[in-house]
Amino acid sequence: MITAERLTKRYGDKTAVDAIDFTVEPGTVTGFLGPNGAGKSTTMRMVMGLDRPSAGSVTVNGRAYRDLPAPLHEVGALLEAKAIHGGRTAYNHLLWMAKSNGIARRRVDEVIDLVGLTDVASKRSGGFSLGMGQRLGIAAALLGDPGVLLFDEPVNGLDPEGIRWIRTLIRSLAAEGRTVFVSSHLMSEMALTADHLLVVGKGRILADTDMNDFIARNSAGYVRVRSPQAGELAERMTGQGWRVERADDGAMAVYGATAEAIGDIAGAHGLYLHELGGVQASLEDAFMRLTEDSVEYHAGVPGAAHAPDSAADQTHLTPAGV
Ligand SMILES: Nc1ncnc2c1ncn2[C@@H]1O[C@H](COP(=O)(O)OP(=O)(O)OP(=O)(O)O)[C@@H](O)[C@H]1O
């Protein structure tokens, strides 16, 4: 378990992490989500004892990192830009780590096999692709068979096969009962990986929630309908107690109804339909809405960081996405 209490990190007058409290529980994947500069990496570095809190504390299984008697056996991490001696072979890199931590050589073979690097174990890691480097970083994190694992943006720059591999690995580590803490700035990725969600912005916690609850609350869909007899159809639909909003392209967004029910009403009254389809709100939009006030570096596209509010804007919601 990871526990943060009033955890704070200041760099000069910049507060990167602002008195946050959270716990990361065993047996689940906790997604740590936030826009660039939100404080995710700083928090993870403090968990790993690589940065000292300016105030507050963070512990792994009840102890600060520096007080852990055998840290590699308690917590492993894949942090961004991990420094690996590129001149060493993957095997020797891990063997050197194992030896300096009293870990048996057999475990090196195990983790190399686990991350699928057996064929390149005798190659210098300096020549590794990004994906191979990530696998080596994960092998190092797993070396001491720790119960707590941190992954900082593990899928950054990986191809779809690599992304799927990491997602499956992360899920299986949690299924074994480990505490798994994964940072990302992609809601869609987290929706597929995490059970619990910790959203941060500008160093503060914006949401601490079960992933299924977040999805249920934020992915409420609607049905998009177009009809040349829109006025009459709208009346019939509101008569059913459904909420009808009009988009500026002439379509209607109907809340509280299924596409089938709308089709039946239209059919029963001889009304033509030119378009009828369910639209699911995107979780990415929900995340943007949650964090929009805490995005440090807005893109130069007007309204880019703003989620749709009005009915007219609802048509921007992506179909059936997460
Ligand atoms: N060593 C440092 N010195 C000064 N400021 C820092 C340092 N490390 C981080 N910061 C600042 O602290 C804030 C949080 O940065 P951090 O890297 O933790 O965010 P993040 O959520 O991991 O972002 P990203 O998704 O871009 O990696 C940023 O404003 C960053 O510029």
Automatic annotation (TrEMBL):
Keyword Nuclease included in the entry's annotation: no
Region (Disordered): 302-322
GO MF annotations, alphabetized: ATP binding; ATP hydrolysis activity
Pfam families: ABC_tran
ATP-binding as UniProt keyword: yes
Domain ABC transporter, chain residue ranges per copy: 2-227
PROSITE patterns assigned to the protein according to its UniProt record, in alphabetical order: ABC_TRANSPORTER_2 (PS50893)
InterPro entries found in the cross-reference section: AAA+_ATPase (IPR003593), ABC_transporter-like_ATP-bd (IPR003439), P-loop_NTPase (IPR027417)
Keywords from the UniProt entry: ATP-binding, Nucleotide-binding, Transport
Composition skew (Polar residues), residue ranges: 312-322
Family: Belongs to the ABC transporter superfamily.
Name the UniProt record assigns to this protein: ABC-2 type transport system ATP-binding protein
Record organism: Haloactinopolyspora alba
